[in-house]
Write a structure and sequence with these properties.
This protein has about 300 residues and is an alpha/beta fold. Helix content is about 30%, strand content about 15%.
């Protein structure tokens, strides 16, 4: 989520407090939770704070009580992340778009399976569970270990600590491809291009007809991530993959068909800083530097 500067320090939308009030309905113990994560894994803290900071806003983009509770419990200083106002706005918008698509899928497949790749400390299950679907969360072992400490166990919610490129996790899914939704959020930009292609083709092979939700940054976003992105600036992680038009993944394999592609900066325009609103009014390439896409994998595109 581009911020066009190293950090936002002023302006009507740029101020972000590192203190988030915990919702009064929380029943979790008020205990400090240490952070013991690798470099890339620490990038999960930015989208967590992005959702948490919405709690007290009258114009909240997403409501996430669990994220608010976690921020109050984690032994971490969020003050630097809090200065990246546009990154945080983009993170909240991404969550809201993905939630809408998850809910649409569950409306069509109420007993389907939702696979969350690179789930971090996201709360997709908490925000969207319909009481019937099965959920599978995949991330690095240290992230899954942390999730098991801060999230309640649930019989329809499984967790796998390991690589999405290993086939074992797929064996836990009983449904056919059309009953499977796979969400890959905040992942592709940290992978080498050939690994993104490998992952997408493997999903098409394994779950023909599955729905896939994923986000991407453009080549412009990738080349400027070390200046714009809180996830990079605060962790030392590196963006490795950028794509200007996600629809072109069909050039890798004609079974990879993107049906929807939305720019984060087209949504909730009043919440972006004045600088971003001004520049993205006439600079289309910048406006499309962070996209969220919905795709159908595994069925060949019909011939025109």
């Amino acid at each position: 989520m581009s911020i066009l500067s190293e950090a936002s320090t002023g302006g009507e939308n740029a101020k972000a407090s590192a203190t988030v009030s915990e919702p009064t309905s929380s029943s979790q113990p008020n205990e400090s939770q240490p952070i013991e994560l690798g470099t890339v894994q620490q990038t999960l803290l930015t989208p967590l704070f992005a959702r948490a900071r919405e709690w007290n806003r009258p114009d909240a983009i997403v409501r996430d009580a669990k994220a608010t509770e976690l921020v109050s419990r984690l032994d971490y200083d969020f003050s630097t992340i809090a200065t990246f106002s546009d990154t945080l706005t983009g993170g909240a918008i991404r969550a809201a778009i993905l939630d809408r698509w998850v809910q649409e899928f569950l409306g069509r497949h109420p007993r389907g399976t939702v696979v969350l790749v690179g789930e971090g400390l996201d709360t997709t299950f908490d925000r969207n569970d319909n009481g019937q679907a099965s959920w599978l969360e995949i991330d690095y072992p240290d992230v899954i270990a942390m999730r098991r400490q801060v999230f309640d166990r649930h019989p329809r919610r499984k967790q796998v600590g390991g690589s999405v490129f290993k086939p074992e996790w797929a064996e836990q899914i009983d449904h056919s491809g059309e009953d499977v939704l796979i969400q890959i959020a905040g992942v592709t930009m940290y992978l080498e291009p050939e690994r993104v292609r490998e992952l997408f083709v493997r999903l098409a092979d394994t779950f023909p007809g599955c729905t896939v939700l994923f986000d991407t940054c453009s080549t412009l976003g990738k080349s400027n991530a070390d200046r714009w992105e809180a996830t990079v600036k605060t962790t030392g992680a590196e963006y490795r993959f950028g794509i200007d038009d996600p629809r072109t993944i069909a050039d890798w394999d004609d079974r990879l068909v993107v049906t929807d592609c939305l720019s984060l900066m087209d949504h909730h325009r009043h919440r972006w800083t004045k600088k971003v609103r001004m520049l993205t009014t006439f600079w289309k390439r910048l406006r499309n530097s962070y996209l969220v896409s919905r795709a159908q994998f595994g069925k060949a595109r019909p011939e025109s």
